[in-house]
Amino acid sequence: MNRWGKAGLALLPGAVCLAVWLWLSRPPEPRQIPAATEDERLAFLSSHGLEGTLLSEQHVTVPGEDAVFADYLALQRLQALPLTAYTGRQGTVYTYSVAGSSFRAELLCAEGMLIGAQLYLPEEAKGMPLPAQ
Predict the structure, then answer these.
(1) H-type helices in 67-132, by residue range?
(2) Rounded CA separation 62/35 (Å)
(3) In whole angstroms, what is the distance from residue 108 CA to residue 128 CA?
(4) Rounded distance between C-alpha atoms, residue 68 and residue 43, angstroms
């Protein structure tokens, strides 16, 4: 075997490991969660063990990726919600009070789908993912 063949064989395990790591670290497929109706939004909250009462509904333009919005985008990626596909589009933010707590649940919806969600205390600016199912 020539020297290039030996070098190729020596690099093969590293290349395979790199390919496996890239495959496993790819972002999850965005979830498709219907949220066109109040019943669908409440069902989503219920699936996370939460009961909510609608406090407000606000029409928004979903911001693009920038430093201010980066944490919120990262939060939605962790939850496999398709927010990045909707930047620059119109959406609606539904804010719910969460029964039995001081928390608020915020659901960002566009085109009848849930594209972002967070749970937060009104006194705090930063949200957190909704609890796992």
Answers:
(1) 70-78
(2) 16
(3) 14
(4) 30
